[in-house]
From TrEMBL:
Signal peptide: none annotated. This is sn-glycerol-3-phosphate ABC transporter ATP-binding protein UgpC. Pfam families: ABC_tran. Residues 4-235 form the ABC transporter domain. The keyword ATP-binding applies. InterPro entries: AAA+_ATPase, ABC_transporter-like_ATP-bd, ABC_transporter-like_CS, ABC_transpr_MalK-like, ABC_transpr_MalK/UgpC-like, Mo/tungstate-bd_C_term_dom, NA-bd_OB-fold, P-loop_NTPase. One of its GO terms (molecular function) is ATP hydrolysis activity. Belongs to the ABC transporter superfamily. It is found in: Cell inner membrane. One of its GO terms (biological process) is glycerophosphodiester transmembrane transport.
């Protein structure tokens, strides 16, 4: 096991395109770190740089106290699980898992011991003689994980390993990966674009955007206090409602006359006729309803012509708003309602969305 430290890591391609713009991340020994962000944000490039599959333009990658910028992938003591499984179709499950160990010249008795133990942990023992074509998608992914486990590396790297699975199997495999990582206590770096997957797996969450890190921290802490409007809108489903601030009580937090952005999570709105002291409220016209079992999403809008000339203190400007309410009951489409949020559930950001403003 080992810690992984990235110090001002950069990647610039021919032509001057800067894919990674000075990333600093410290993953402690035994931690599960998740890199999350939209397509093209640089998360897979960063993972491949840790693996040695991409060269480093600037900065340092340190694994277990050793800078590995110039170290070949095979000598970094890491194991990588890919999105497409990358199994040998003509080999049995046992031989797929044993292949890398045999290439290293390991004795057959030790190979069998390691493969049998990994198969037991992953519940693959009854399938050791099968070929990949005889396995389900989830079973193939477990074989790919087993091939990494038998290496007993210092660091596991996962490159969107669940993206080819259906939704139900993704949930099951997500739980298996987390249980397995805790059992092995091996430092792990995991890439995904799925923010729910990221939130449930991570000890440390790294939110990326445009080749740089927007925020690093505990997943719940990031959810509760996003550092930027990008993080606020990316982490959480449905996303946080974001709108310009136009009321004195909120603008005063930003400095005299300075514009800002107010964020409110859908679950922090309640349907009420009251405006809480220091909070905000607004009238909505219900435009759409999504019932998703134990809760319902209400999509509302406030038309421009509903904006009062003298707005009630605490009311917000026109725009679309998502409200999450418990249960399956919801106001009918077209009905006018009023929603409100209390002061300690409000999030304030600078006008450019790059800075969080604490009340």
């Amino acid at each position: 096991m080992a810690n992984v430290t990235l110090r001002n890591v950069r990647k610039t391609y021919t032509g001057g395109f800067e894919a990674i713009k000075g990333v600093n991340v410290d993953v402690a020994d035994g931690q599960f770190c998740v890199l999350v962000g939209p397509s093209g944000c640089g998360k897979s490039t960063l993972l491949r740089m840790v693996a040695g599959l991409e060269t480093v333009t600037g900065g340092e990658i340190d694994i277990g106290g050793r800078v590995v910028n110039q170290v070949e992938p095979a000598d970094r003591d890491i194991a990588m699980v890919f999105q497409n499984y990358a199994l040998y179709p003509h080999m049995s499950v046992f031989n797929n898992m044993a292949y890398g160990l045999r290439n290293r010249g390991m004795k057959e008795a030790e190979v069998k011991t390691r493969v049998d133990e990994a198969a037991r942990v992953l519940e693959l023992t009854p399938m050791l003689e099968r070929k990949p074509r005889q396995l389900s998608g989830g079973q193939r992914q477990r074989v790919a994980m087993g091939r990494a486990i038998v290496r007993q590396p210092k660091v596991f790297l996962f490159d969107e390993p669940l993206s080819n699975l259906d939704a139900k199997l993704r949930i099951a495999m997500r739980v298996e990966i987390r249980k397995l990582q805790r059992r092995l206590n091996t430092t792990s770096i995991y890439v995904t674009h799925d923010q729910l997957e990221a939130m449930t797996l991570a000890d440390i969450l790294v939110v990326m955007n445009g080749g740089q890190v927007e925020q690093v921290g505990n997943p719940l802490a990031i959810y509760e206090k996003p550092a930027t409007t990008f993080v606020a809108s990316f982490i959480g489903a449905p996303p946080m409602n974001l709108m310009s601030t136009r009321i004195d009580e909120i603008k005063s937090q930003l400095g005299a006359g300075e514009a800002g952005i107010l964020g409110i999570r859908p679950e922090d709105f309640v349907i009420t006729e009251q405006t809480p002291a220091g909070g905000v409220a607004l009238p909505l016209t219900v435009e759409a309803i999504e019932r998703v079992g134990a809760e319902t999403f209400v999509y509302g809008s406030r038309a421009q012509d509903e904006q009062r000339v003298a707005a009630t203190p605490g009311e917000l400007p026109p725009g679309e708003v998502i409200v999450r309410i418990p249960g399956s009951e919801a106001p009918p489409i077209g009905q006018k309602i009023r929603v409100a949020a209390v002061r300690n559930k409000l999030h304030l950001f600078s006008g450019d969305g790059r800075t969080r403003i604490e009340a």
